[in-house]
Amino acid sequence: MTIVEACDSKTNTTPDFPMGWFSVSRSQELAVGEVKPVKAFDRELVLYRTRSGKAALQDAYCPHLGAHLGHEGRVIGETVRCPFHGWQFNADDGKCSHIPYCDEIPERARLRTWHTDEKNGEVYVWYHPENTAPQWELPDLPELDDPNWTSPRYTEHLVPAHVQDICENSCDPVHFAYVHNQQGIPDSEVTIDPDGRTMHLHSNMENNDFPSHLHAITYSPGFALVRNTYGPNAEMIMYNSPQAIDKHTTFMRWTLLVRKEIEDLAGDDVMKGIIDGLSDDYPIWANKVHRRRPVFCREDKPLVTFRKWVRQFYVTSQDQQEIA
Ligand code: FES
Ligand SMILES: [Fe+2]
Which residues form the Rieske domain (predicted)? Predict the structure, then answer.
């Protein structure tokens, strides 16, 4: 994991957290019975896996005397037990189900339980500032179970930037030339699905070491997938599932896999080149500010489209109006 230092003068205001699904853990990093603290959306949360294998994410502080359940809390069956006085809370609805020294359970003894969905090797949480039920599902990625593809590779980075700024990167073909050493600005097109929510960027990356067609699919600010096609049966996918820790800090979880034809041809070079290229952006993110109203030029159409598209993920009128 790489840690990038934040710029001291980063004092501008940033938007709230956009709604949507955000990763809080890789599945393989949460064993049955494991309990861990998680920080996301500027909140303290507890993540655990019950004995039946269900991942649960709940507010961390016990309603009794405020102990943090993510520190020394224990899984008991389908509940988590507070380390302070042993109260147990259900994984599915957060209700207190057992107080070891009292047979009457107070009505308000309950933990807020977040909507989670586990797929694609990750545990996702649905975030909405008004706590609504999930409004869409994330896609399943069939490549993860396809024997024609390599097993996934992972890379992670803690970045001092708002989650929207990181998402914006996949709709910014001009920076490919300046930050990622692409020779010239690639031909690019941005489209949005009829549902209005999924955005696509198509770019011809002809002047790279490995020329490719890049297709970035942004499902929401919390999930973007990039597919690079180098030729018939020569594909790579990489997806980023960020965890919005607070408004200035994002933990990026990248997962990469290639078709085995690429590995046969180029060994690890393509994958290694892509992983190295990911860190090109970090010095920019570490030192930039978030511009609510950027000055755009005529050729910045993909970015303008992105800023209009991203408004739908915000709830407050200030964030909806000031972005773009
Ligand atoms: S603080 Fe959790 S049981 Fe007392
Ligand atoms: Fe980039």
Answer: 21-125
